[in-house]
Write a structure and sequence with these properties.
The protein has a single domain, classed as Ribonuclease Z/Hydroxyacylglutathione hydrolase-like (Metallo-beta-lactamase, Chain A), CATH 3.60.15.10. It is built from nine helices and 14 strands. The strands form two sheets. A seven-stranded mixed beta sheet has the order 6-5-4-3-2-1-14, with helices on one face. Strands 7-8-9-10-11-12-13 form a seven-stranded mixed beta sheet, covered by helices on one side. The N and C termini lie far apart (45 Å). About 7% of the residues have low confidence. Bound molecules: zinc ion (ZN) (2 copies). One zinc ion binds next to loops.
Amino acid sequence: MPFMALYISALASGSNGNCYYISNGHEAVLVDVGIACRDLEQRMKRLGLSPESLKAIFVSHEHSDHIRGIPVFSRKYGLPIYITPHTLRYGRMKMEKSLIRSFSADEPVPIGALSVTAFSKPHDAADPYSFTITDGSATVGVFTDIGHPCSELVHHFSRCHAAFLESNYDTEMLEKGGYPYYLKNRIRGGRGHLSNAEALELFTTHRPPFMTHLILSHLSKNNNCPLLVQNLFTGVAPGVTVTVASRFEETPLFEIAATGSPVPLPLPHHRPSVPPQLSLAFD
Ligand SMILES: [Zn+2]
Ligand SMILES: [Zn+2]
């Protein structure tokens, strides 16, 4: 049996831009492109990754820190963009129509030998999704911009060998910080972002024994501190490589190899009704 592994990196992570790379060594997908084309090319090049290996971009939601780089990058490399009609409408991107594809919650999309499955998440956007990506052996989750740890998140997180998990804000820093009250409430109000404490609780309670990598993602610039997050998670789970993704540079490329655990099965269709709201990024 051939050796199977996934190769992953957070090429950018934070309210100034998000881009997550998942590959099986031959084919690769990006979840979101929230940084400029040139920055993305430079970051991939530093990791020895070729844009030609990319087969698709999946779009989680329409906030600018997730879509800003999509039109230029997708056009340059002729990359199909998987995006739901609602997100497309509210994102208002000028994209080549021939490149636009769609996806539905809980329906796996084959991209070469990879399979990408979306599931709904609570977030202040028109039609937001998280994703899991598998090669049939290892599974990686991209879990950012999540208002609270819902049961679907718990389900999918507990089946991942590696996860990009949002750890957006420290509760006390947000409370005592200078953000206006309404913005504080948007962030912590259940349709904003996951706090450090929520991410830690999810990790310690629902981490599967086969998880090898945790990449803490989408840290707030003003209400969090990378060192604080690193210290919070380090030592909690021996055997798990814990990394804090940066808004300024790419993480290393991590190899994720499965250790004989099951592949996630899609859940029955379930989509909470989320009213379209602001399409601005906030952290
Ligand atoms: Zn975001
Ligand atoms: Zn967002």
